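Structure (tokenized):
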């Protein structure tokens, strides 16, 4: 078969999230957003980016990214886990997706064989390792979306790569300190050669309970991926990073990312500095106030409809179970709700490996009207 013949016959699907968002009727409201699109961006981010344009922001940076940004990321991580970091431990990437990609690529080149991802997961966790020919397995979760420690223990091999995500997408679940400790105890005993990739992109978006603490505080063999897409409400600036415990691993990741992106966009890296340094914290606090209020609004509607859910306390999603209402797969329901005049977009759980759920984003300015429409649809 020629390239052109293969091109003509191969499917290159876009993520299910995009499919449903694209089906939205002109009069529809989106509760499908994976970003804080309508939330105000802190001026310090914009000022830092603008100022950089007259001060090096239009040049290339090092392959590992802007040293100033890497130093503040290192300093913040040191506060999280007490380990000593320098800029040599940090690799700046084009968003967290690129951070996950290049980390998995590097571990694959170093001989990793298998990646374990949560049973309910952000879709790229499965797709990226599959692109490198790695075996991908899901590990079980408890009914409230915690890690099922016994289930994970039963399947764990010493050289596995395990992806964790707290605060979670699509669940909104934040692991407690006790849960993190329990998981770390298991991993210290059994994951002697592999690594954890801890996706902490929602770490600052916790609106109830104790603040989030990096998993690397609990387990040494943790590679942290994080970025400003969510906490800065600037997903389009595409800045993320990887934090590795050893400079050697960070160097390997840098080398493997250089062939993909060369360097991350410079002005955008300057924009990330005030977020990492905590200068935008009062803006983030306001996001969290709004997210909690929106969460409470959504749960009031779900309660009225007797729809079961796990109460989220971080990120900006809720992931109710609609099995008893629309059946085992919510995709058709979501598509028809999106296409309807005066409809609403919610994301089918199949995009996250849980087909009988839907993901509702708490980040819409139109959440009240969106939930009114959702309730009406559920009652009709
Ligand atoms: C859990 C999680 N990780 C990574 C990403 C990708 O982040 P970025 O937009 O910075 O690439 C997302 C985006 O929705 C996410 O929800």
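Design, position by position:
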């Amino acid at each position: 078969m020629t390239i052109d013949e293969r091109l003509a016959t191969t499917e290159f699907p876009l993520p299910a999230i995009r499919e449903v968002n694209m089906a939205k009727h002109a009069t529809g409201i989106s509760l499908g957003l994976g970003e804080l699109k309508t939330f105000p961006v802190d001026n310090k981010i914009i000022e830092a980016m603008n100022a950089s344009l007259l001060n090096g922001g239009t040049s290339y940076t090092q392959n590992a990214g802007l040293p100033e940004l890497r130093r503040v990321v290192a300093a913040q991580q040191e506060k999280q886990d007490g380990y000593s970091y320098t800029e040599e431990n940090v690799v700046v990437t084009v968003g967290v997706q690129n951070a996950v990609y290049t980390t998995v690529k590097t571990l694959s080149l170093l001989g990793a064989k298998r990646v374990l991802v949560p049973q309910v997961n952000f879709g790229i966790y499965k797709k990226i390792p599959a692109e490198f020919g790695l075996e991908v397995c899901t590990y079980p979760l408890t009914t409230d979306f915690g890690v099922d420690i016994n289930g994970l223990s039963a399947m764990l091999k010493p050289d596995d790569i395990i992806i964790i995500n707290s605060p979670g997408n699509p669940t909104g679940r934040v692991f407690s300190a006790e849960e993190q400790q329990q998981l770390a105890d298991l991993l210290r005993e059994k994951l002697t050669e592999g690594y954890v990739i801890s996706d902490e992109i929602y770490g600052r978006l916790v609106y109830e309970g104790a603040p989030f603490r990096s998993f690397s505080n609990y387990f040494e063999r943790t590679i942290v991926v994080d970025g400003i897409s969510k906490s800065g409400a600037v997903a389009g600036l595409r800045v993320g990073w990887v934090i590795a415990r050893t400079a050697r691993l960070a160097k390997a990741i840098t080398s493997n990312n250089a062939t993909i992106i060369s360097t991350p966009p410079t002005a955008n890296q300057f924009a990330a500095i005030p977020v990492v340094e905590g200068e935008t914290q009062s803006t983030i606090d306001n996001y969290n106030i709004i997210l909690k209020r929106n969460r409470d609004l959504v749960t009031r509607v779900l309660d009225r409809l007797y729809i079961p859910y796990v109460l989220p306390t971080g990120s900006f999603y809720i992931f109710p179970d609609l099995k008893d209402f629309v059946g085992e797969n919510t995709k058709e329901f979501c598509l028809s709700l999106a296409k309807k005049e005066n409809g609403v977009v919610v994301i089918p759980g199949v995009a996250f490996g849980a087909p009988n759920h839907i993901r509702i984003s708490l980040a819409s300015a139109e959440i009240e009207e969106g939930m009114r429409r959702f309730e009406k649809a559920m009652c009709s």
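Reviewer-requested clarification: The chain has two domains: 3-41+281-379, 56-276. Residues 34, 95-97, 122, 165, 169, 199, 201, 227, 229, 235, 240 surround pyridoxal-5'-phosphate (CB under 6 Å).
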